[in-house]
Design goal:
By secondary structure, the protein is α/β, with parallel strands linked by helices. The protein has helices spanning 11-22, 50-58, 75-82, 98-111, 124-134, 158-171; strands spanning 2-6, 26-35, 62-67, 89-91, 114-116, 136-142, 182-188, 195-205, 210-220. Helices cover 30% and strands 28% of the residues. The longest helix is centred in the middle third of the chain and has 14 residues, at 98-111. The two termini are 31 Å apart.
């Protein structure tokens, strides 16, 4: 099947593309929604400029759609974006969010599109282990008890997965960040033709949460 992929630049949406490609599907377009508000219920707002580099790295065309970010009204913006592509369905990186899954499904039903959700209800630890084997994932935002400034820029690998397991046991932090505990960006994936390198970044820390703002990044050849 021919898919458009809903992407934020984070691990879940990128891994959903990887799973679609492994299953023999074609991903022809990336769809990125840019909310006007940081508190959007549907869309990420951190380091969204990185999606443009992901499009260049993967050589998959990007469609960006600005959004009000207002609850429920922001769904119209996703509908507008999906009307711009000629595909059979949409890949999404949803894991547990019923709110997001239900709304994407409703929009796709109205447009006659299939929804491809390969991560839905997967075991979080198992999922992170799979991701760590093929993706270069970096944590760029934290907002959870027990996740301090040192987490920003940290890769998702065997060490950090064990640390997330400990936080899950002690403080109920969701290992995959489904409660908004952390957000990520993917610097490399098997379907990238080039990898992304962060050139300059700065940490913005606000007492109990913070963000790694990526100021400059570039594409480099894979070695």
């Amino acid at each position: 099947m021919k898919f458009a992929a809903l992407v934020s630049g984070g691990k879940d949406s990128i891994f959903a593309i990887q799973k679609a490609l492994e299953a023999g599907h074609e991903v022809t377009d990336l769809i990125n929604i840019i909310p006007a508000r940081d508190d959007s219920y549907m869309y990420h707002s951190i380091n969204l400029h990185m999606v443009e580099l992901i499009s260049e790295a993967s050589e998959i065309p990007l469609i960006q759609q600005e959004s009000s970010g207002i609850k429920e009204l922001e769904l119209d913006d996703l509908t507008l974006a999906l009307k711009k592509v000629d595909v059979d369905g949409v890949t999404v990186g949803a894991i547990e969010s019923q709110y997001q899954a239900n709304r994407v499904q409703k929009i796709c039903d109205s447009l006659g599109l299939e929804v491809y959700s390969p991560l839905w209800h997967r075991d979080p630890e198992e999922l992170l282990q799979e991701m760590a084997k093929v993706l270069d994932v970096r944590i760029v935002r934290v907002a959870a008890d027990g996740m301090d400034e040192s987490w920003l820029g940290r890769p998702i690998n065997s060490t950090s997965i064990e640390q997330l397991k400990a936080l899950n046991r002690r403080r109920m932090v969701h290992m995959a960040g489904e409660g908004g505990e952390y957000e990520t960006v993917v610097l490399d994936a098997p379907f990238y033709k080039k990898r992304i390198e962060i050139v300059r970044s700065e940490i913005e820390w606000l007492g109990d949460q913070g963000t790694l703002n990526i100021i400059e990044a570039k594409l480099v050849d894979k070695t």
